[in-house]
Amino acid sequence: MIKRTFAISLLSLSAILAPIYASAANEPIQPIKAVTPENPDVAELGKMLYFDPRLSKSGFISCNSCHNLSMGGTDNIKTSIGHKWQEGPINAPTVLNSGMNLAQFWDGRAKDLKEQAGGPIANPGEMAFTHEMAVKVVASIPQYREHFKKAFGSDTVDIDRITTAIAEFEETLVTPNSKFDQWLEGDKNALSADELEGYKLFKSSGCTQCHNGPAVGANSFQKMGMFKPYETKNPAVGRMDVTGKEEDRFVFKVPTLRNVELTYPYFHDGEAATLEEAVDIMAKIQLNREFKKDEIAKIVAFLKTLTGEQPKFDLPILPPSTNNTPRPQPF
Amino acid sequence: MIKRTFAISLLSLSAILAPIYASAANEPIQPIKAVTPENPDVAELGKMLYFDPRLSKSGFISCNSCHNLSMGGTDNIKTSIGHKWQEGPINAPTVLNSGMNLAQFWDGRAKDLKEQAGGPIANPGEMAFTHEMAVKVVASIPQYREHFKKAFGSDTVDIDRITTAIAEFEETLVTPNSKFDQWLEGDKNALSADELEGYKLFKSSGCTQCHNGPAVGANSFQKMGMFKPYETKNPAVGRMDVTGKEEDRFVFKVPTLRNVELTYPYFHDGEAATLEEAVDIMAKIQLNREFKKDEIAKIVAFLKTLTGEQPKFDLPILPPSTNNTPRPQPF
Ligand code: HEC
Ligand code: HEC
Ligand code: HEC
Ligand code: HEC
Ligand SMILES: [Ca+2]
Ligand SMILES: [Ca+2]
């Protein structure tokens, strides 16, 4: 609603902009825009917490360990390494643009980023801490309490505020201005001939049935293996775990394809090492279609135009622990 | 030499500055200055490599994992967590101001930062990779090769260039403008009464015998346990491992006390959890002196004035792996 109003008022102001909005509006994919946090102090605090390994039992693992913002918001490992080097059950999705997800996790079991953020801290296979201990650690650090005061009006530290702040920071992790968005916004030279052909193929062969909208996905749950079963040793059953319904077996959240160049390896089991492999498998099992090698190359070329500007900010400097801060227990 | 010339020329230019330099010159500790890298492109490349976990076998551990620049250039763990969660043998020293160390490591076995940087990559207990594999990974990434070209004139990737770049970046990790440096440079209000008394006690009781110079240490090897033996279960024997001499048993590089507020826990075994404990032990075993509680508090107050401005830079964005990049082997 807000977007449409915006477009109309712009149009009435300046007819020259009309073709841009018209062209984007006719496409199944829409550009994304930078987000200014509603409350910058909350987001700033959230950034610190996101980078703070003291939210884990070991003092070694932060959100950024597995969703590394130097590397597209993922760890680029098939399945993540958790506390004591436990092998994780599933591939870590990117946090980039995760504010646009219809729900969080591959099976959508968390309704939003705030609900999600409490999970990893207390997950014995990830950060292996407890909410009580995380709160105790943060509350023991006066400089953190000052940030809570600035952000929330009082220096009370609780898990609700911690996850609110982390989520607010994550909301800012938007990657605008990709080559593809430039093209959508009217710069017809932004894409090469191959990239454009790749996009046309992506549309015409039906990928946009599931990968559409501003996030190029992330807005529906779909069966993995529409025409042929997906073969994997990974035991995850997807959405069925949430709904209990047999028809939801192997239904997963359609991942965003924004920054997909950076979020290798692919699929919930991380078994597709390259984009070429992922595209080939998608075509075969979701669309019952066999692409030629050069068709795959063109689609991959298009997918790489979805890499946007990565969030740019100073490495946060964390306040030191005090004599009262519970010490990490790494071993 | 360079510093002295600088001071004299300034004096001749402006007599008003004389008291500042004169006061600093009479003190056993000198201020430190920000460093501009000789070759910014090399330092910039080094920053990326420093943050890149693909220099490790697992793809999970970077230099920044153990020398976290959000946390004073250390991991704040007694002894580090290495590849596959191995328990490290010794406490990780800070990389901040490490360019000022007379040699690298607690026992000084690496002569400089470049020689040091090759160590952890190939150390089976740390990053567990090989130099050959690290080179292969970096060389497989065209965007990295462009950075090598910009930095070194050609896009050849080898371990010599990798360690040169990391070392050049580390040289920039200087923390100027601490409260104590402001005081040294003439701002007599920079220290509180307690902090100043702490400094006087630090000098008068003999701490500056070992902790002196711009880094407040880092310029000599000294016996840990001059008057009384230091009790520890840690098997490290220090400099004796390098020289083979019995007299070097339990001789360690005197650590810098710059940013010591951030580099807890203390000593090579990480067994002193608080600065109070470390100061108390130092007094007892290095100076045969028993401080009262308020004396310790004052020295600690002084030590905290040695926290400088932390290096400030954008979180580096790393170029993605390609289909030819060897994949990490985390498990
Ligand atoms: C040990 C690795 C690890 C750590 C630490 C970790 N995550 Fe995750 N994260 C994952 C994995 C794996 C998943 C996917 C789990 C699933 O879908 O069942 C995930 C899922 C997510 C998602 C959902 C994304 C999506 O598209 O569904 C978000 C958001 C997220 N994590 C944020 C965080 C935050 C915030 C923290 C720190 C508080 C954190 N993660 C810590 C590995 C990790
Ligand atoms: C019927 C829905 C559907 C269609 C059609 C579809 N996809 Fe997907 N796509 C999904 C789902 C669901 C996943 C996640 C599956 C999983 O990980 O188990 C996915 C995953 C992907 C991934 C991996 C993303 C990641 O980060 O792991 C890529 C790349 C991809 N799709 C591209 C395509 C292309 C190209 C097409 C057309 C040839 C296509 N998809 C058609 C539903 C669909
Ligand atoms: C797994 C943890 C770990 C990793 C990864 C690691 N270090 Fe270290 N680092 C240590 C420990 C522990 C020591 C002390 C070893 C000793 O003195 O014997 C050390 C020592 C150093 C020193 C010497 C500092 C001094 O005061 O003597 C420097 C400099 C350094 N590391 C830089 C790096 C760089 C650069 C990298 C990446 C290429 C790196 N480290 C990776 C744990 C690590
Ligand atoms: C005779 C030399 C000597 C004297 C005198 C001395 N120190 Fe030290 N100091 C060392 C050495 C060597 C170490 C490292 C020992 C180790 O880790 O095994 C050290 C370590 C420390 C540390 C821990 C630093 C860290 O990062 O782990 C602190 C704090 C410290 N000294 C403060 C003091 C104070 C305060 C005094 C005076 C009361 C003092 N020292 C006197 C040699 C000395
Ligand atoms: Ca992935
Ligand atoms: Ca330490």
UniProtKB/TrEMBL annotation, chains A, B:
Changes after translation: Binds 2 heme groups per subunit.
Cofactor annotation: heme
Main location per the UniProt record: periplasm
Taxonomic superkingdom: Bacteria
The protein's name: Cytochrome c peroxidase
Binding site for heme c 2: 207, 210-211, 282
Region forming the signal peptide: 1-24
GO cellular component, one term: periplasmic space
Domain Cytochrome c as annotated: residue spans: 41-149, 193-307
Entry note: cofactor: Binds 2 heme groups.
Keyword Transcription regulation: no
Subcellular location(s) per record: Periplasm
Coiled-coil residue spans: none
Pfam families referenced in this protein's UniProt entry, alphabetically: CCP_MauG (PF03150), Cytochrom_C (PF00034)
Residues where heme c 1 binds: 63, 66-67, 83
Species this chain originates from: Nitrosomonas halophila
One GO molecular-function entry: metal ion binding
Keywords assigned by UniProt, alphabetized: Electron transport, Heme, Iron, Metal-binding, Oxidoreductase, Periplasm, Peroxidase, Signal, Transport
